[in-house]
Protein 1
Amino acid sequence: MQLALEIDLSAASLQNQVFKQIHGLIVSGRLKPGARLPGTRALSEQLGVSRNTIILAYETLTSEGYLESREGAGTYVSTTFPDNSLSVASGSNHDATYHKPVHLFVPVADDKKRSVPPSEIVCDFALESTDPACFPRSVWRRLTNWRMQSSKFNLTYSGTPKGLRELRETLAAYLGASRGISCTPDQIVIVTGVQQALNVAAHLFVRAGTTVAMEAPGCRTTADLFRAYGAHIAPVPVDQSGIVVRHLPQSRNGVAFATSARQYPMGVMLSASRRDILLNWADQTDSHIIEVDFDTEIRYQGSPPPPLKSLDTHGRVVYVGSFAASIGPGLRVGYMVLPPHLVDPAVHAASLLDHGFPCTGVPWLEQAVLNDFIETGAFEKHLRKIRKTYMARRDCLILALQKHIGSVQINPVHCGTHLVWELPPDFPSAVKLQTLMLKQQIGVYTLRDQNIGDADYLENCDRYLLLGFAALSETAIEEGISRLAKAL
Amino acid sequence: MQLALEIDLSAASLQNQVFKQIHGLIVSGRLKPGARLPGTRALSEQLGVSRNTIILAYETLTSEGYLESREGAGTYVSTTFPDNSLSVASGSNHDATYHKPVHLFVPVADDKKRSVPPSEIVCDFALESTDPACFPRSVWRRLTNWRMQSSKFNLTYSGTPKGLRELRETLAAYLGASRGISCTPDQIVIVTGVQQALNVAAHLFVRAGTTVAMEAPGCRTTADLFRAYGAHIAPVPVDQSGIVVRHLPQSRNGVAFATSARQYPMGVMLSASRRDILLNWADQTDSHIIEVDFDTEIRYQGSPPPPLKSLDTHGRVVYVGSFAASIGPGLRVGYMVLPPHLVDPAVHAASLLDHGFPCTGVPWLEQAVLNDFIETGAFEKHLRKIRKTYMARRDCLILALQKHIGSVQINPVHCGTHLVWELPPDFPSAVKLQTLMLKQQIGVYTLRDQNIGDADYLENCDRYLLLGFAALSETAIEEGISRLAKAL
């Protein structure tokens, strides 16, 4: 690396200047023990001084114990220092003097922090958790190696703004067959995940005062996001057939956020008639629907219901797909399917958020390997495997609840990775139960965490407990529920 | 994959329902020629009908020519269809009927579009272009393979919100030694690049009416970005010593955007005294500085100047680093160095933009391999190589200009990948020259593209031509300049 040194060529003793500045970098902790120094030739070229000057400065630093040279390997900062008064502590201490509170555009949701550190939870029925051990790593590695061998300039090249063409073609074919969504690859924009897609959609549809209808209970981070764009959130209740469409706001140019295949977090499916009403509402109020399809692939029974996008005849729906549930959130690839006239504005919005240059925000390698993963059928095979595994865990959880608690009221879990349990009337509230369980080092979840800002609703929602099952072994599930029952 | 079929078990002829729906998927183009159908057993499980029903439906479709079965490999959609009236054209045609204009939060910068398609430009002196052929692909591949072998759950796991710890440690050490920035790994947040970092910074500091001081000429996409957050952009002129600090706005709680090491696009370095004045201005007006260090590593002479961050004693500076110039924009990894009290708010802002879940927006693999690339010294070696290559191209460009044009007035190019040429008074304007050159299929650039909204400034800026050199071979540079001279 080039060291941050500045030499005054007109001043005396260049060698001393080099010595002093490298010494300064070492004692201030900027140059860390074990760090490799640049070669004497490179440094002399950088500073415009003779190589001999650098050699002499290095020798002095070495004789004083700050540097050590390793035979044939170069010069390094010593790992043992000449004096103990050395302040190797790093970090700008002066920064600590400045503590002006920051007025965030949106508040930090600190109430989402747990009262018990996650490390102390031994059995966590966490929501939106999946089991990374199910992922076929060796297949992914093989596909990665194969792509790396033919990578040429793709690794560092900016690529196209919509994302890898191949992947968009594969997704268009996949969506046609598995979701009934008819779209061209040009209507697809690859993004880093659902959250980025929602930001793009917010850029397209939301400004100060725009009404965003959201399912309640719903995804609070999504409500926070839309609020950051100045939206007014209109919570719309959810029943056993999904969002209660007669409560949709009637303001014009609005937005509705919908998880139609499986409402998050209640797990219910939007009924066919409500699908039609929701689409009509969008047309009549000149509004748009942002449809997020998060975990439809993790389906245990029946066919996935038709997405709103597949029924959309007026270009009102932006469909957002994700691999966070099916592959894992670490992949960082998602996609949007847009009506044709919204594609260019969406690409522009994405470039404001992420790209800057005309390139996609997702590295080429992840896009290419994901394409091959789908195309070779490995994704399908993986889905079959996790469906089987997660279904066994779901059944184990239901059986454990019946065994240890007795009769339990549970929303059907045809799809997804958690169940919603309506607590019996004589049970303590969900929030109390959560606190009780935390003392047992068990993580269970309530609808409070999914509150999107409707105070009335909060009072009624305390009768539901949410339990994620996909990331836990059957043994852990059995043990967790048995502890839960004992603590009651 | 699971097909999007819906079976009414109470209705007659299940087999006919399956037939009709698969037929519908094929003729509507949703299920494409060559697509593999799910196995009969899997489909019968999905739909809850007998396997025989599926087999019979498949057989009918096969006999009618819609499907073909390949020995031992399953059933596929035919690549040759039974009738020519088949509409295989995909894409929702109905979407085309809806063409309501979209009111974007910010305007699409369509004036940035070229009048000649890029494919017709044979010699493009594009700005911010580097040569992907210089990148050590085999080293990167080796490091990737090595990381893949030990990947375990990292590939799909969400990771930590700030980014890979190892990489943040490596960056902290690198920044200490090469930039004189003293920071801990905890002050670093990994992002997908400069653009995402700017969005995070905008969330922290910008709301409706906030004054953002920007160098003029400057980076227009950055101005667009801040405007999208409601900022009022205050253009501040740039001279040979960088941003003219006496023109900084005096409003409180403002922001200044600074490219201190090498002003973009003028290529000048911010003088030491102005660095101090800029930092004092931030303190006195309760403002923050967003410092973007884009291409300091590509330095041909002398040491890089100390970043504002290394001189910041009051936590006023957010430093943004990138690998887009040194490695390539396709990598999609950048980072922010924040004062300690701003780290948590920045992580929260980043989670609104991208993460959603508590995880970083950059895939693990890119972070891990980048870490190894820096740690093993391969990055340093790569930098030495591109410095040499790009310096030769810079020198070739200057020589070609002198040879074909004569005496040329050029800002010093100690650093970076383009030069700024002040046209002689008798030359046509830069914009005219650009049009002239496009007819010769040569891309040259003007300050108009870097206009951040100061109309007065525009009249004076037409005497500068910008020429990027890093991505062009010496032969191409010589040829391009010779054509330029002939066209004059």
Protein 2
Amino acid sequence: MTGHPPGAVALIDAQAIAHNLRRLRRVLRPAGTRRAPRIWAVAKADAYGHGLEHALAGLADADGLGVLTLDDALRCRRLGWKRPILAMGADFTLADLRDPALYPLHVVIDRPEQLAGLAGLPPPRMPHVWLRHCGALNHAGLQAGEYRAAFRSLHAELEAGRLAGLGHLQHYAGAEDPEQLPRERRAFHELISGMPGPLCTENSAAVLSDPASACLTDWVRCGIALYGISPLRGLTGRALGLRPAMALQAPLYATQAVRAGQGVGYHGGFRAERDMRIGLVRCGYADGYPRTVQGPCQAGVQGRMAAIVGRVSMDTLAVDLSAHPDAGPGDAVTLWGPGGPEVESVAGWAGTISAHLCVGLTARVPRILRPEAQEPSRPVAGATRKKARVASK
Amino acid sequence: MTGHPPGAVALIDAQAIAHNLRRLRRVLRPAGTRRAPRIWAVAKADAYGHGLEHALAGLADADGLGVLTLDDALRCRRLGWKRPILAMGADFTLADLRDPALYPLHVVIDRPEQLAGLAGLPPPRMPHVWLRHCGALNHAGLQAGEYRAAFRSLHAELEAGRLAGLGHLQHYAGAEDPEQLPRERRAFHELISGMPGPLCTENSAAVLSDPASACLTDWVRCGIALYGISPLRGLTGRALGLRPAMALQAPLYATQAVRAGQGVGYHGGFRAERDMRIGLVRCGYADGYPRTVQGPCQAGVQGRMAAIVGRVSMDTLAVDLSAHPDAGPGDAVTLWGPGGPEVESVAGWAGTISAHLCVGLTARVPRILRPEAQEPSRPVAGATRKKARVASK
């Protein structure tokens, strides 16, 4: 109820998302080539936790949006999205597909039962259909025999003018593994050999690790890279020319003098080796900051790193302010993203992946669109002293 | 868009919460005693992820509600809560405290700066004030000297009729540790020796592990136990006479035949040793199911356990249905709670605590109040075959 937000906020940089989309386009269209695949901008899970409406502000140039369900697709339409939408995990009936608001609509067929939902749709409400093979992932997806049968049946529908299109789609189980990716690609190409239709197989990891192969397909599906996060192990988004689109910030709400020998946090996980000044940050695992971080973890305070000390609790985490004598209540602390550690680092401390952190932010963390005029997203500088307050709503 | 909800839902059992409250009351009032402490029902973080409005349906007999901020307190008032509210981590100004809707209001003072916000409130809008010592936790909280000075100043206000009450509050750093708890208690009692006023120090772990000491205080603060979850390591809520208040369920949306030698899930984390039938469940880490589970993990299908196979992905996890030949699309899978594994087990697989899982459910998981008429919450039975479909909204 004071000037700064009472808790954690995720600041979303739509310009960074637009930058990342341009970056992927350049990767997919090397100088001198005439043709490049179109890009499905994957916006599942509320745009990987960034907030669909904010992500759309950066995705105006995408060729289509990839979502999970038809409800998600309708939400995109309500937000004004006019181009194609790919529903990647939709349950649907014939009645659902009759809603004209959904079109232009692409749907993925990953189980034989879904075919019944497609028969008898009158033009012009015809979806573009993508068959998905189960592949090495073995989540939803047609087995080889089911795939061939579905293709025969749907190809007849296509020829009769009752489908807008029919393509081939695959999710790789190990796209970031340079040995497994070609094997998975080859197996899928063998399956679809002789079946005409566009190809949609490559994701962020495949596009960035093997763009030459990705360029030979018709549509790519990019999610995590659009948000500035590396899909490849051991590399950050920045190293791949991407800009992080999210900064998780929370206010420092109190400071505490801790004497040598005293503990900080639940279960005495940290014991001070010297007298120190700590800052209490209004962010905890109830916001989605992972309680499971281990080892030396950091957050950004006044543009420099400060160590996180003690166990992360439900609503609070503590940082060592010994080297930040000017920091005090109201200062913004950056838990990840520009002004703090890379999200890839925090994911490493928590033993998980960056996407898990971004989509794991809870309902109480407002996603706020960062104003365009603001300074460009940069990594934490060495020793600047500028006060960075938490952005107001 | 079919009959069952498209994704994960958390079914909330308000009767279980009411049962747990009664259980804590019995623990706090052994036969023959005349006086028992009052109970703050802690409902921070949207009632530990259960949904405040659903939790309130089970908390009608609590003496007061414990929340974090004044905004949370106002939300409780809008939901019809008339008894006292304890704001445990509130930033406030004098203007904030003038809102009559907040009262009867208790506020925690954990930093000297907050005292300024209390001077000059005209009756009858007088909060009850609790001083909080930093203790061994060393998060927010007054140091000993600050505590004594604040007590002197506020005691004068109390005597002059300008406060509704003045008490002593502490959060233990190791309430579940039978050696540390008495030390922390003793240190606080030494600090407040000679200072009159009610005492509020005991939480779920302290109440359940040492009820005799808890009975000597005036108010206890119970959170996790109210939701049926054990605050003590190595014990489940059920072992403590509590009933779990949340069941996380999600629909099985497809099945897949996997041949011996094939992998399931990203990064080939699982490889089938024999031909098997798996079920794909519409729940993943974007719902808040932890991607970090390790070892043999399970979920409840048709009242019996099924192994989770392969890495949990954003929107899907897979279960082994080899021993569930009748299970198919539309069946409910229980990820934790009645009908599935205890939430304490899932927390163990994920290397965290149950509270982390419950508060970590994301916005896309609807919290649905379980109808009263339903069967009582029970652990998974041996080999019942009853079909348990996901409850409709």
Protein 3
Amino acid sequence: MPETAPVILQMDFPFSGPWGEEMAAQLEGLARDIAAEPGLIWKVWTENAEAGRAGGVYAFETEEQAHAYLTKHTNRLAEFGITGIEAKVFRANTALSAITHMPFTASPGA
Amino acid sequence: MPETAPVILQMDFPFSGPWGEEMAAQLEGLARDIAAEPGLIWKVWTENAEAGRAGGVYAFETEEQAHAYLTKHTNRLAEFGITGIEAKVFRANTALSAITHMPFTASPGA
């Protein structure tokens, strides 16, 4: 665990699918690339087919790494024709999060 | 891990502190209550002192439990005089999240 509290980035954007398993099959390569992102502790991939939005929640070791990734991913999404990104950055409260079952350690990945 | 994908709830609201360790000391009791919430897998507590906002990212086993908690927590925050809540609900993509180091298992808690 990093000495300072992890930084939480939440972002989402308009998305027209695919969803679920089909989304996973299509974006597996991107996921493996993101898994190696500097400072990434974890990313939860999020999707809402009814709202037509997808995105993710990320934990990074530092605020600089979170912002660098946000810029990089925003540019990558623009190449896919995706705009209208909504993003928020927070610091995690590790003491309270530990009580509510959130371990800030990365798994080995799949 | 539940058979269906976990539901991710992200919410935040105007907050004037306290922050960090002081926040953790003040809200430890609330955290222990939330840790026992039906269907909660984990909650990450989020804070942004510069933006004057705090909240959390939650994983629940079902959409019904996520929405029930959102209603309950919105009412609880209103009792504290807190309004202006922004909330989003998504389904997690577990296959992609596993690649990016996100284990959907609860820790024993602190």
Protein 4
Amino acid sequence: MVSASKARPCLVRRWPRLVLLSLCAPAPPHPAFKINPICHSSPRVHNRGCFDMHRSRHGRSGMAAGKLGILHPGDMGISVAASAKNSGNDIYWVSEGRSAESRARAEEHGLLDAGTLPHLVELCPVIVSVCPPGAAEDVARSVLAQGFRGMYIDANAISPQRAVRIGQMMVDAGATFVDGGIIGGPAWQPNSTWLHLSGEAAQQAADCFAAGPLETNVLGGDIGQASALKMCFGAYTKGTTALLCAVMAAAESLGVRADLEQQWSQNGSDQAAQNARKVRNVTAKAWRFVGEMNEIAATFEDAGVPGEFHAAAAEIYTRIAGFKGASETPALDDVLAALLQDTQNTLVEENEA
Amino acid sequence: MVSASKARPCLVRRWPRLVLLSLCAPAPPHPAFKINPICHSSPRVHNRGCFDMHRSRHGRSGMAAGKLGILHPGDMGISVAASAKNSGNDIYWVSEGRSAESRARAEEHGLLDAGTLPHLVELCPVIVSVCPPGAAEDVARSVLAQGFRGMYIDANAISPQRAVRIGQMMVDAGATFVDGGIIGGPAWQPNSTWLHLSGEAAQQAADCFAAGPLETNVLGGDIGQASALKMCFGAYTKGTTALLCAVMAAAESLGVRADLEQQWSQNGSDQAAQNARKVRNVTAKAWRFVGEMNEIAATFEDAGVPGEFHAAAAEIYTRIAGFKGASETPALDDVLAALLQDTQNTLVEENEA
């Protein structure tokens, strides 16, 4: 692990160094959960789940079997749940208010239905949140409102500031908070998707997924580190794709798309074809990148670098969010039309006014 | 050449379709220059210069030998001048007010010194402008102020709107305007740098560089096309590098740079090393990318896509503009410190206030 930047103090922080949240809970912890700070066994050696492991190792036989609640098992969340299940835990979810599609997904992967959130909170000493970034704080609040005092792992693409806020809320209520950030697509293959974790209980959170295929990586004790890493990584991958969408839409609007594609194809390069694929393929996920781009913009501004890249990226993904659930990958012309739609609408409005 | 986007009308234009500037000059043309619209010979077949070619082909023996003026021969301009010289033209420049470094560069490449701008305008029926984008309009204006009526090739990284404005100014004064955009680094190798040209006289402009190594490409008759292509191409290459600078600076500021580099290095990838090189190497050119980023932002806004990507990129390049002329490539830590400097200064000011 490269450690150059860690060896010296950070150059700048607009907000104080990420708060190391106290884990001294002011309220009694979840009956089935207790933090064990000396548990630092390596991943992939346990196969009976994080709580079974704690029980067998430390003789706390009164502890419940590993029960982990997942909010809410979408494409990514279901793969996170599957790794926790592989690792010996019983995985619960809340069917109340969810779609038939979610129910089918949960059943397919053997998740247990807690029915309602109060029941999930009662059953599970560990809850993992995987949801759209904009919903992260509300989801956390709703869990606390049910009296949750266990370990809450927020694995969402949120700014470090927001992670600190949610963490503080958890600690204030007597729960334990672990900051998480997922890098990669849904985790169905080993060595392809990483759950980075930070906070004092990060290792225990990692142990819940020890059998993979989701990889875990414990970053350190500071809440916000995992979210910061996720923000910076996503900033480049999703930022450059959004920029590419904007470039191709601008070229289309200006009547030079064919010339641009030809320039990209100089010397036998397949960049033009690659770029067209990237723009077409991002449409399926664009709707859920919007919130993440806004979180990244806020993160960058707070870190002292311009947030406009991702403000623009949020706008780009908003314009093509309508391709969510499309039965097939749209044609490039249709994507570019959607990217320019906003202007077209504006022009129509202007003409009508 | 891919022509899909050309075959159908543009989806959107905030400004009217790029003006096809009339070449009916209201004032008499430069005595040594006359447009020959039927001259469409291929590049690389002439070796005596664009004007010699016209004379020998069409028997206009009264025409002067090919004399081309270059404003101003920097690293890129000198290579453009070299290709025009290879193609049989005498190349003039203006030493008045320029640095010793420019003089040395011009002498090394056999440019002839016209001394002053009025003398250059008197001598040369063709003038090529290669300057910082922010200076393009002033340079054009100063040439016209000397009574220029020849062919003016603007090869600068300017928005199509600005190209149209300069072009209109030229035509109004009785000169001929060719819109140009250079893609690639200084043109010392064949097949590496392209001068795209548009406007009715684009082919004649291309003929001035027929012997290379600068490659020319005639796009069409619309002023603004060449600039639009340049803007869209540069938007992606320079935009993604600026974004990378911002990402690494944010990671440094947030204390997760080492973690980000490790994530980039997963599965044996050398992306971390590549990214560090990109950020360090862009510092030498950052100072002259600032104006281009502003032009791209304006181009994008006009084309109906967000301009914020490049507003942010302009800010990034401004912060590292101070590395201009550095004797060696700076260390990554120094680049990141410069990228975060602005914030640091702000913080100091805030603390002092």
